[in-house]
Recover the amino acids of this structure.
């Protein structure tokens, strides 16, 4: 019926669960130093579950995250370590794409920390130039404001890789970015700097149908990969992300129910974000195939 690119699931929360300890503020980044090979193992599990691609563990490798921990000198080396683990997993699987992840500057879910476009564009261009020689596409993730989307797209487009832009929407109103700006307003951003696909991620699955309805008219391949968190409240104070906790009701079966609904809306890029693990992706792969869809 439809050819689906099945994204992988969350990396950071999976790493915390498997590491058996809280790695601190840098969580998914620090774990590559303390537990070498763990990132590769998770990539391998997602490929074994049927995922079409591996999303590199580079989301949080940003100067504003590393510098406060005295690790900014490792900026380039950490990218290469994450890229190597993704490549090692792909070689083991014998198939798949590699998506180079670029997360939000400032902090996830914090549109109030969006820097000026010229600042973010330069920072993302630096990151994109490291990723580009080693990835099949660049995946800009969890973008919560129009201006951060502008900067990220400009930076990513400094390379020749395809660029996918994924935004995080309000959990109670998927038609709005976490900044309160309408998802539909991405049309103006994309007119300035095009993307090759648009997605919504790291919001509750209940919000994704409305987000996809706003993304579809943009005329690009589109999709969603939701998180397994309880509602993330708006947060505009301090420098940390909002508090969140994992849901206990989002079984692989229930997550697949949501995802099949997104496919019915025309989405062809489907996967999972935080707290959506290999078991969810495996079940989703099975359900998609059973419904007659082809996995790219």
């Amino acid at each position: 019926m439809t050819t689906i690119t099945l994204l992988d699931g969350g990396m950071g929360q999976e790493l915390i669960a498997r590491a058996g300890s809280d790695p601190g503020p840098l969580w998914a980044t620090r774990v590559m130093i303390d537990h070498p090979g763990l990132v590769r193992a998770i990539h391998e599990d997602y490929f074994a579950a049927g995922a079409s691609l591996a999303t590199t563990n580079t989301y949080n490798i940003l100067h504003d995250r590393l510098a406060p921990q005295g690790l900014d000198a490792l900026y380039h080396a950490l990218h290469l370590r994450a890229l190597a683990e993704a490549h090692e997993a792909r070689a083991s699987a014998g198939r798949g794409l590699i998506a180079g992840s670029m997360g939000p500057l400032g902090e996830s879910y914090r549109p109030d920390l969006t820097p000026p476009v010229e600042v973010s564009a330069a920072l993302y261009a630096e990151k994109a130039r490291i990723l580009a020689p080693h990835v099949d596409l660049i995946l800009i993730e969890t973008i919560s404001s129009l201006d951060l989307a502008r900067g990220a797209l400009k930076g990513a487009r400094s390379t020749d890789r395809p660029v996918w832009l994924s935004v995080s929407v309000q959990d109670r109103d998927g038609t709005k970015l976490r900044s309160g700006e309408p998802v539909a307003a991405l049309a103006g951003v994309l007119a300035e700097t095009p993307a090759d696909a648009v997605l919504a991620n790291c919001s509750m699955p209940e919000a994704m149908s409305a987000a996809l309805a706003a993304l579809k008219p943009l005329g690009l391949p589109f999709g969603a990969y939701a998180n397994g968190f309880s509602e993330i409240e708006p947060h505009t104070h301090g420098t940390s992300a909002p508090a969140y906790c994992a849901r206990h009701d989002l079984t692989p079966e229930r997550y697949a129910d949501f995802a099949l609904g997104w496919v019915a809306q025309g989405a062809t890029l489907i996967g999972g974000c935080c707290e959506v693990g290999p078991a969810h992706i495996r079940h989703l792969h099975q359900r998609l195939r059973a419904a007659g869809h082809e996995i790219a």
Summary: Residues 3-295 form a domain with the TIM Barrel fold (CATH 3.20.20.330). The chain has a mean pLDDT of 94.
